[in-house]
Amino acid sequence: MKDKNRRQKKGPAVTGAARSGERVRQGSPIRNGDAKPQAGAVAKHAGGSRGEPSRRKDVGAAAAKTVPERVSRAAASQVPEPQRKLIVRTGDKPAERVPVILETAGTDDYRLIDSGAGEKLEQYGPYRIVRPEAQALWPRSLPASVWEKADAVFTGDTDEDGMGRWRFSGDALGETWPMRLLDTDFHGRFTAFRHVGVFPEQLAHWSWMKARIEAAGRPLKVLNLFGYTGVASLVAARAGAEVTHVDASKKAIGWARENQALGRGEALPIRWICEDAMKFILREERRGSRYDIILADPPKFGRGPNGEVWQLFDSLPLMLDVCREILAPDDAALVLTAYSIRASFYSIHELMRETMRGRGGLVESGELVIREGGTDGRTTGRALSTSLFSRWTSA
Ligand SMILES: C[S@@+](CC[C@H](N)C(=O)[O-])C[C@H]1O[C@@H](n2cnc3c(N)ncnc32)[C@H](O)[C@@H]1O
After folding, report:
1. Which residues have CB under 8 Å from 261's CB, separation 6+?
2. Where are the transmembrane segments (predicted)?
């Protein structure tokens, strides 16, 4: 199967000119392949320590009041007044567990083979791919002869979000190829911003979510905000959940639907919604909708389909506040990932605990890392950090 998929002699090398909805790991705000930011444009990607400085807006503190009250926290900032004010949360903060390091090791279709000297070598389905990796400060473990055999190398700006092009060692490869993770089929994809249509470090969250859905004994309602190519939505639906997937990029939603079709998942209960994530959850709050699990993997900067601006440091407090309101009253979970921001996991950890005051449960926060596995997938190598996360569970 793997050999069969090697080198489909198809389209030209993919350049940085025409992709959207891609998660980018570092640098300045990205455009969707255009000069101007458009829907779903995202800047920076993952990794606790990756990314540029960001001004932290004052999110205030939850005052010790007995009755929830709405307060404005954006007055002193230059961002537009949010559509609804933050609720002052009272009650005890949830229990905490820190630091938690969630590690992704290799699977049949994905493996971090080696890293070092500012690059990483990974196996995505049938292909070996080399991409820049600013955090790989250490030397490579494997000899140059192994790296030189890579099928595709991303060359371009050394910035994480720099556009560039893919260089292939032989004939140009097709833009997509089939992959399978957690029993879910989807396309690997050479995109313009060095990304390949899936963020494998998310496997740690996805397998946790899958187990929770399978153990529930009823169809859980899952909301996947900033859902990109839909792999998490497909994993959740296959495990038995009813899924609402929200992303601002029409193109990303199109890729997600292609992934659904690839796995013959047309009948899966997934609502694909192309909308600004904040706008969507505010509407759900007004409607009184409830979800058992909410996943949110926001970029540092992005735009909704109508130009709505998402700035993580400005928008996250309100997003979590609204998510709390649309979580089911019992047995609920909220999983947040953040990347390419200059912040410690403690900043999202403490925000999560303040937001979830009075709801009990546990907040666990830390980093998502991927462990090198060597060419055979059996060697235990170094851990590469990709992102920060914070996860609240009611029980
Ligand atoms: C980092 S990706 C999420 C990746 C996803 N968690 C995964 O692993 O497959 C970020 C996504 O946010 C979307 N996005 C950016 N701004 C948005 C906004 N304002 N509302 C909704 N989605 C947005 C982008 O189109 C992109 O698909």
Report:
1. none
2. none
Question: Once rounded to an integer, what is the mean pLDDT over residues 288-304?
Answer: 98
At the fourth CATH level, which superfamily is domain 70-102+198-393?
Vaccinia Virus protein VP39 (3.40.50.150)
Q: Are 170 and 9 in contact (CB under 8 A)?
A: no
Q: Whose CA is nearest to atom 1 of ligand 1?
A: 23
Ligand 1 neighbours, Cβ below 6 Å, are 21, 23, 40, 42, 199, 202, 226, 228-229, 231-232, 246-249, 252, 276-277, 297, 299, 302-304, 308, 310
- At the topology level, CATH places domain 3-35+108-189 in Immunoglobulin-like (2.60.40)
Instruction: For residue 94, say if its preceding peptide bond is cis, omega within 30 degrees of 0.
Output: no
Give domain limits for the chain: 3-35+108-189, 70-102+198-393
pLDDT at 202: 98
Ligand 1 mutation target, pool 191, 226, 303, most atoms within 8 A of CB: 226
Structure tokens at 393: 């569970």
Entry pTM:
0.83
Question: How far does residue 340's CA lie from ligand 1's centre (Å)?
Answer: 14
Evaluate if residue 6 carries a pLDDT over 50.
Answer: no
